[in-house]
């Protein structure tokens, strides 16, 4: 088992994430099923993920990857870097609650 942080190649603000690509990266590490008969390895995956709007530099990781071995970690690191889009400017904040329904 290997747990290491993955860092962005550049500085910036997290402006978008391809969450499907992140999920498929976990599946490729064995943390999900491609078909019903596949077994799940509950020890692999991502923790400490950045969030939209977070500032990222060489000191703050995009995520911590928990992988079976170095090869799986490298593959997952490429997927994380490709799935998280950075921008020079912080994105506009959006409200957590869009609207309340009362009736």
UniProtKB/TrEMBL annotation:
Keywords: Glycosyltransferase, Transferase. It comes from the Bacteria. Residues 13-87 form the Pyrimidine nucleoside phosphorylase C-terminal domain. Its EC number is 2.4.2.4. GO terms for cellular component: cytosol. GO terms for molecular function: 1,4-alpha-oligoglucan phosphorylase activity; thymidine phosphorylase activity. One of its GO terms (biological process) is pyrimidine nucleobase metabolic process. It is an enzyme of class 2 (transferase). Coiled coil: none annotated. The keyword Glycoprotein does not apply. This is Thymidine phosphorylase. The gene is deoA_1.
């Amino acid at each position: 088992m290997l747990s290491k942080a993955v860092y962005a190649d550049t500085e910036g603000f997290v402006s978008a994430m391809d969450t499907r690509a992140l999920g498929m990266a976990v599946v490729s590490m064995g943390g999900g099923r491609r078909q019903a008969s596949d077994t799940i390895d509950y020890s692999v995956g991502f923790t400490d993920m950045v969030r939209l709007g977070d500032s990222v530099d060489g000191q703050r990781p995009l995520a911590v990857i928990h992988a079976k071995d170095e090869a799986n970690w490298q593959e997952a690191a490429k997927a994380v870097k490709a799935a998280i889009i950075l921008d020079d400017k912080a994105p506009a904040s959006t409200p957590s609650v869009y609207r309340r329904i009362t009736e």
